[in-house]
Structure formats: C-alpha cells, structure tokens
Specification:
The complex is a heterodimer of chains A (412) and B (497). With 412 residues, chain A is of the alpha/beta class. Chain A has helices at residues 5-17, 27-32, 60-65, 97-101, 120-129, 141-148, 193-202, 208-236, 243-257, 283-302, 373-385, 389-395; strands at residues 38-44, 54-55, 81-82, 88-89, 105-112, 158-161, 176-178, 263-268, 309-314, 335-340, 349-350, 371-372. In chain A, a hairpin with a 5-residue loop joins strand 3 (81-82) and strand 4. Chain B has helices at 3-16, 29-39, 45-54, 56-63, 73-80, 89-96, 109-136, 140-152, 160-174, 182-190, 193-198, 218-227, 237-246, 289-300, 303-317, 324-336, 341-350, 352-355, 365-376, 384-392, 410-413, 416-430, 457-464, 470-478, 481-489, 492-495; strands at residues 250-252, 265-267, 277-279, 282-284. Classes of the chains: A alpha/beta (412), B mainly alpha (497).
C-alpha cells in the first residue's frame, strides 16, 4: 500500500472507528497532539546486496563487475528506478518510489561497520551490540537506547517481533516480544485468572526466568487489547497477501494505537545470495518485493504516527562488487542503510560515495565503508529521540561522534 | 563427584561379601535427574527408576557405548514403518527429487505440485524418526549428540535437494560418528551431497580451460568458522579463498551421470583448481581430491578446532559460559585422543564442573517439548502438534536457515513471550488437548483416540517429587489436582536442565 492522503485517511478512519472499544490510554489523542518519536529497526540478516538495492547506475565499473546480475540503467527494460543522477533503485522496490518522491525515503550508501569481519554471525553480533570488534559487550544498543530515553519506563517501550529476543534488544531494560499474524490475539492459559495466579506464584523469584515471566505477563496484559483491536481492523479489510506486508501493517497499527511503544525491531532472513541471485527478477527481487510492500504497508499501518517515525533497514555487511562464478555475490563490506518515515528528510542518497574503481575498493574487492553505522544511527537518534552527546555515548560507547554530511538527515 | 565414594563403598561391599547391595546407593534423586537431564532429553519414569537402580556411573558408561544398548521394540517398529527412511541419497533423488526438463520441455505445474507432495513425505518421515528416537530411544546420549552435531553442522530443509536429503544426511553423515572421531564426522559431513548443496560448493568451480574461475567461498568459510577452527581460529580472508580453491570440484553428482552413478557426491577433477596453494601457512600438494582431504585433516587436528569443539561441548553439557579451565582440559583431551568424542565426553562427565552444574542450563524449545513428552509417558503417534509447538517457540525442526544452527544458551531462547508460550504448551499438553495419539498414517492395528488422557500428576510426582524447589512444591501442593501436571511442566524447575 503506497502512502497517499487517501489511504492515510482511510487507515485513520478505520482506527478511529475502534475508539468505541475500550482503548485504555487515549492513544489517539496523544498521536493527534504530536506523540512520542518512534524508531523501527529492520535487520536483514544474511547481508543484502546493497549495490543491487541502491544501484550506482552512473558507474561503468558496476556494470563491468556484474555481467549477469547488474540492474540495467533507468529507462531500459527491467532497468533501475531513477533516484538521482548517480543512483537507481531496484525495480522490485517500486512500491517505495512514492515514499522517495514524497521525501520520506532516503539512503546512506557505503555505510557499515569499521570491523572487517566477513562472518555473518560475528558481524551481526557487532551490529547488534553496537561495539564492533568487541564481542563481550553484554547488551544490545537498542536496549541501551531504551535506558537513556527520557520518560517513565514500561514493559512495552520496546517490542521485538518473533518468538525469541534478538541480541540488539537484550539488556537491563525490560522489553516485550510478540508474534504477529492471524493467531496473535488468541487467548492463552495464562489469561485465565486462577491458573495465572498459580503461575504468578511459581515465578515470583528473582531469576532471569522469573523476570521474563513477569515481563511476558505485563506485556500480554498491555498488548492483548491492542492486538485484539488490530485484529478487528484487519478483519474489516482485506489483509495484504504477502505475510511480511501483513505483519508490517499489523505492527504499524499496533504502534500507532499505543504511544508507549517507542522502539520496535524486526529481523528478516534470506539475503545470503551466493548463487543465482538474479537481476531485475529472480531470487533477490523476489525477496525485495515483499520487503518494499511491507515497508509501504508499515507506513499505512502507522497512519498519523508515520509523521513521528524513523524506520531504519540495514544488514551486517555488504556483498562483493564483482559477481562470483555462480551469478551470485560473496560476503563484502560496505552497504546501504535505508531510512524511511515521516521524520526523515529523504529523497536523497547520503554518505561519501567511494567509487568502484579497483583502487577505490576495500581490499580490492568490496565497497569501502565511508560512514560508520554508529555515526549514522547517532545522527538519527540525537535529533529524533532528543538525546544529548553523553546519552549517545552510552548507546554507542567508543563510537565516532558524527560523520560529515549526516547533520541533516531528519525533516525539521 | 560420587565415583570415588562409590568406589570405596564397593570395596567395602566386597569385603563384607554382600553381593546384592547395589553399589549406587549414594546416588541422590538429584544426581539421577541431573544425568538424565544432560545425557538424555530428561527422565522417563522407566529411565528414572533404571538409573536409580544401576547408578549414574553405570548409566553414563552404558550411554557412551550405544551399540550395546537394545532399542525398544516400539521404536524399531515405528522406524520400520517409514517408507523413505533408510533410502540412499541417489535413490531419494531419483524417487523424490525435483523434476527436470525432459528434452527441453519443462514439467507441468501439476506434476511439479505432485512431486513436491511426494518430497514432503521424505521430510515428514525424517522428522517423525527424529522425534520418535528423541522420545523413545534408550540410546539417549546418542540422540543428544546427534542433535548437538546436527546444529554444529546445520543444514536447512527449506527447498530442493536439501529437503529430501536432510534425513539421509543425519543418518549417514552424523549419526554413525556422533560418538566417534571428530575427523571422521567432519569428513562425512563435508562429503555429503546435502552439505555441498546447502553451502553452494556444488557450484564452486575452477576452469583451467577458460581461465575463468567460478569460485564460491561459502562452504570454505563456514567449514573454518563454524565446523572447525571457530571465528577466532586465526585464519584470514586469503585462507578462505584458498580453501575455496581447494574444494573446487567437490560437488553433487549430476543426475544420470555416467561416472559413479551409485554415489550422490563426487570429486569432479575438471572443475578443480590444480594450482599451488598455501593454506594456513602450509604448502598443499596439488593432487586433486586428496588436497581437500589434507586440508580437512589439517583443520581437524588444529588446536583451535579442539578448543572450539571443547567450548561447544562444555557449553552444551555444563554452562552457557563454561570455565576456561574446563574448556582447556577438554581441548587437551581432544588433542591427546585424536579427537575421540567419546573420550572427551567421558572426561567431561567425570569433571567436577559437570556435577556442580545442576539446573544451570535453560532448555531449548526442542528439549522442553521432548522432555515433557518423555516425563508424561504419553504415546506419540502423531508428532505434528509437537513440531507445531517447536515452531511456535522459534525452533522449527530442520528449520534453522543459517549454517550456525540452533544455540543451546539461555540468551538464545529465554524471552517474555517464550515463557508465556511454554506455559501455554504445558497447560494444553497436560490437559490432553494435543492430538498426539491420533493415528495420522493409519498404521496401527487397533484404532487410537485422537487425544491422550490428561497427564497424571502422580506420574510426574514420582519422578520430580523429591527434587522440586520448595517454592514450586508449595504451589503444586496448594493447587487442585487437575492443574498440578500443568504447573509441574510449566514450572521454572522444568524449564531448566
């Protein structure tokens, strides 16, 4: 669903209809007055090929390095969608083009980690703990972010989609995780008061299990109403076909209806395209399309809250500039960070572009990193969440304070 | 560690000529449960009573020698009923593999759909075999180690050939070596077609004729990072590229190949890079397939590999963060025995750290679900509800997409929602609400009910009664009889092993 005035009104109207249900905290009133700023992080595990997402169409070296998987220049069959003079967007992401034109989608290219590790698992660890090169950091940067956010803390300030808690959200501050989809609002045995009372006593101790139980109970109490209400809205209209788009819409509505949720995290897998990754069509295209549709659906689900939201999409590293012998790409270095949301000053590709000539490549094979992902995140979090330098330093200890050219990523 | 005191006690018994006195009288229920929680997927009522009688020391010795344990007739019968279980990789591909164009004509959509349904039978039966063994096998340590090594050498049953080969991979490449030599296990895994497809090595090609190499680093990287040396194992990107060249030509045998039609994985010399190679500082002899074997031998014998495997074993069997001292001792044992997994495990089970770690591990969803079924003693004809719950808890069987496999740590599995869902499973299962007794394949002589009776709390009490924590004890005692089984299976005590 593309975000346009028509669809946004419709979503708001649908949600307003839900106001007759017991809402709890006047969520919509808060949103109407300019509610809290939200951050949604989407991690593409497995390293998406950023050079085929935000394509350097103006570089002959790009086409020379990728004889079978390059995305053709804009204006040709299956060609890239033009972004600016230099870059184009993968055609499978056409549903995002309205956001770009609206100035609500941008990218930071040649971004990534200063650590050169090409292991998925190590690189994801660093991306999530926010301390590249240091694997012993016990918590994730989104949890540290939660700890420095001003305002009272509750069990649903941060939510993660999925049955397990990702490293990026682990830490001292309580977080909630939930499953989205058709059965998300179905009652559980712990919703029955007698049994719940007995389990409350079983988990009354001080261990990590007891904490998790209590967080789960509070999150359930807080969110079950939101989920049930969302279910009613979803059942009222046809849900988008792709499962991610459906979940993204659901997530958007959940966040829109509950101003207590400040941070959300989603991980999507399936980007490790070593073999036959395809070009304008094929494997990667088939994964980008639902992602693009999902981001558009997320924007739709957020409704008026979109205005106060930044969505960040990134991967642990990029992929090799040259395609390998299997029409795929191997583990590389620099990648593009995607930024979307009403709070983003989009419509442009940020970051110092290092070029793709052999001498410009990292270790003569990969896109170099010119923007540390921590500097990019700090440039967003500072103005967006109202964080001071010392708070940013607590989120990303030891990180470079800023990067050139990133001082105006957000809409004013 | 009770072995010394038991030794003394045994000596006393001999002196007193009291042959009938069991030598294990000192084993507490706590020790019995500890051993069954770690060497097995938790206690069954039978196993609990058995270990109480024979003692933990003898049980451990027996488990380390699974070939001498007779499997229950029920398990053997169930496995024998599976149509595709035990087929070779070549047969599986011929009978269930993806359809291919014939004379340039693509297969019809209906045929493809039918083929995919047939292929799903193979995966379903692999999952049935895995679950039945986990629940019913008396060779519990073997099942634990198969699960452990499967995650260490993970492949994903998402699509294509992996889907029909994943059960064969477990049976042929992992199970025979689960307690054997690590080197043999590594060789079997690296030569199994499922692994070569999963990590793209079947495409990894050098071409002397055209000079255009088509290298693919995926397999080479994961062999070093995940299978052997570990991420901190001291190799470089150049070593990754070199090992990729070493493995050029290790691939799946093309369907209907005239060369070696009886095997599914081959070394194809025409695709191999015969150039000189310096790997981990050592000059490899350019000699085709043997070069890859030499590289695997170098990796298997490396102290970094010993340390990596020792750490993972200690993490699985003792604690999420095992002491460096224990890991070093296990690594030393690994090196001294040429990677003899059985002997490394014996050292582990003899260690003070092992015995002092009762309840320190948080069960994975797989361990949680299987241990509940074992403790309750519920017959399982239909594994689907169990597989469904494992998926819901984030751990679908054969469903880990990435080659690092499922973790065994608390961090990986403990979450607020997971806690709610585990309790939901415990309550539904205890109530008899899961249709696990349903005879889905219509194989049983006598008709079975769809749903089992509610779990009898007395059965659980007989196993866990003496070891529940006082807090849990009080809550269970105060609850109505109809809720007790759910409370025990959903208690913090039962989440740990």
């Amino acid at each position: 669903m593309a975000i346009n005035p028509m669809s946004r009104r419709r979503v708001v109207a649908a949600a307003a209809g839900a106001l007759v249900l017991p809402l709890g905290r006047g969520a919509w009133a808060a949103a109407a007055e300019g509610g809290p700023q939200r951050l949604i992080v989407i991690l593409l595990r497995g390293a998406v090929d950023g050079l085929n997402v935000v394509i350097p169409c103006a570089e002959p070296a790009y086409y020379a390095a990728r004889p079978t998987i390059a995305i053709a220049r804009p204006g040709t069959a299956g060609g890239a969608l033009p972004l600016d003079d230099h870059f184009g967007l993968h055609p499978a992401l056409a549903s995002l083009l309205p956001l770009w034109r609206d100035g609500r989608l941008g990218f930071i290219h040649a971004a990534g980690s200063p650590d050169p590790n090409r292991s998925h698992f190590e690189a994801q660890r660093y991306l999530e703990n926010g301390t590249p090169g240091c694997s012993t950091t016990p918590d994730g940067w989104m949890n540290r972010l939660l700890q420095v956010l001003p305002g009272p803390r509750g069990p649903t300030d941060a939510i993660s989609v999925g049955p397990t808690l990702p490293r990026i959200l682990t830490g001292k501050a309580p977080v909630a995780n939930l499953r989205l989809g058709a059965g998300a609002a179905e009652p559980l045995p712990v919703d029955r008061p007698e049994l719940a009372a007995a389990f409350d006593r079983l988990y009354a101790g001080a261990s990590a299990l007891d904490d998790a139980y209590r967080e789960g109970r509070s999150a359930r109490t807080e969110l079950i109403g939101d989920l049930a209400r969302e279910q009613e809205i979803a059942d009222g209209g046809a849900p988008p076909p792709a499962s991610f788009a459906r979940s993204a819409m659901q997530l958007g509505r959940l966040i829109a209806g509950d101003p207590r949720i400040r941070l959300a995290f989603v991980a999507l897998g399936g980007w490790d395209t070593h073999v036959d990754q395809g070009g304008a069509t094929g494997w990667l295209a088939n994964r980008l399309r639902p992602l693009g549709d999902g981001l558009a659906a997320l924007a739709g689900g957020l409704g008026g809250v979109w205005r106060d939201t930044v969505v960040v999409v990134f991967s642990e590293f990029g992929r090799t500039v040259h395609e390998n012998g299997d029409r795929g790409t191997d583990h590389g270095h620099g990648n593009a960070i995607w930024l979307a949301g009403g709070a983003v000053r989009g419509g442009r590709v940020y970051g110092a572009w290092p070029g793709l000539a052999p001498r410009q490549l990292y270790q003569r094979r990969d896109l170099a990193v010119t923007t540390d992902f921590r500097a990019a995140m700090s440039a967003i979090l500072g103005p967006h969440m109202g964080l001071a330098e010392h708070q940013l330093a607590a989120v990303f200890p030891g990180a470079p304070a800023s990067a050139a050219g990133l001082d105006r990523l957000l809409a004013t | 560690m009770p072995s010394q005191s038991r030794g003394i006690l045994a000596a006393v018994c001999l002196l007193l000529l009291l042959p009938a006195l069991p030598a294990n009288a000192v084993d507490s229920d706590q020790q019995v449960l500890h051993v069954l929680n770690r060497l097995a997927f938790g206690p069954t009522a039978d196993d609990f009573n058995y270990v109480k009688v024979v003692g933990v020391e003898r049980y451990i010795a027996e488990q380390l020698d699974p070939a001498n344990i007779t499997e229950p007739i029920e398990l053997r019968y169930r496995l024998a009923q599976l149509a595709t279980f035990g087929l070779g990789a070549v047969e599986l591909r011929q009978l269930y593999g993806p359809l291919r164009p014939v004379a340039g004509v693509k297969p019809a959509l209906d045929d493809i759909r039918e083929e995919q349904q047939r292929a799903s039978l193979v995966l379903r039966e692999a999952a049935q075999a895995r679950m039945w063994r986990a629940v019913l096998s008396r060779r519990q340590l073997e099942q634990v180690m198969v699960n452990f090594w499967f995650n260490h050498f993970n492949i994903f049953a998402g699509e294509g050939l992996e889907r029909i080969w994943i059960g064969n991979y477990e049976e042929q490449a992992i199970r025979p070596y689960a307690l054997g030599r690590f080197r043999d296990l590594l060789f079997a895994v690296a030569k199994h077609p499922a692994m070569l497809v999963y990590l793209d090595n079947t495409q990894n090609t050098a071409s002397a004729r055209t000079g255009a190499d088509r290298l693919n680093e995926n397999f080479a990287r994961e062999v070093m990072e995940l299978h052997t040396l570990g991420a901190e194992g001291g190799y470089t990107q150049v070593d990754v590229e070199t090992l990729a060249r070493v493995f050029t030509g290790w691939r799946v045998n093309p369907l209907d190949s005239n060369a070696f039609p009886e095997v599914a994985a081959v070394f194809e010399g025409a695709r191999h890079d015969y150039g000189p190679k310096l790997f981990l500082g050592r000059q490899l002899k350019a000699r085709g397939k043997a070069e890859g074997e030499e590289a695997l031998d170098i990796l298997a014998a490396s102290p970094a590999t010993a340390h990596h495997i020792a750490f993972e074993l200690a993490q699985y069997f003792v604690a999420d963060t095992p002491t460096p001292d224990l890991v070093d001792r296990l690594a030393a044992r690994f090196l001294a025995t040429g990677g003899d997994i059985r002997l490394v495990l014996k050292t582990l089970f003899d260690s003070a750290e092992f015995w002092a770690s009762t309840g320190q591990k948080y069960k994975t969803p797989y361990e949680f679900v299987v241990s509940a079924v074992r403790a309750a003693g519920v017959p399982v004809n239909n594994v689907r509800p169990l597989l469904g719950w494992m998926s819901r808890l984030g751990m679908p069987l054969y469903g880990c997409e990435t080659p690092d496999g499922y973790k065994s740590t608390t961090d990986a599995w403990l979450s607020p929602d997971a806690t709610m869902q585990r309790i939901a499973f415990a309550a539904a299962f205890a109530r008899g609400a899961l249709p696990v007794t349903k005879d889905v394949e219509d194989r049983l002589a006598a008709p079975a009910p769809d749903r089992p009776s509610p779990v009898d709390p007395k059965r659980l009490e007989a196993i866990f009664g003496s070891t529940l924590t006082t807090g849990t004890r009080a809550v269970v005692d105060a609850a109505p009889a109809g809720e007790r089984a759910a409370l025990i299976l959903g208690s913090p005590d039962f989440m740990r092993r």
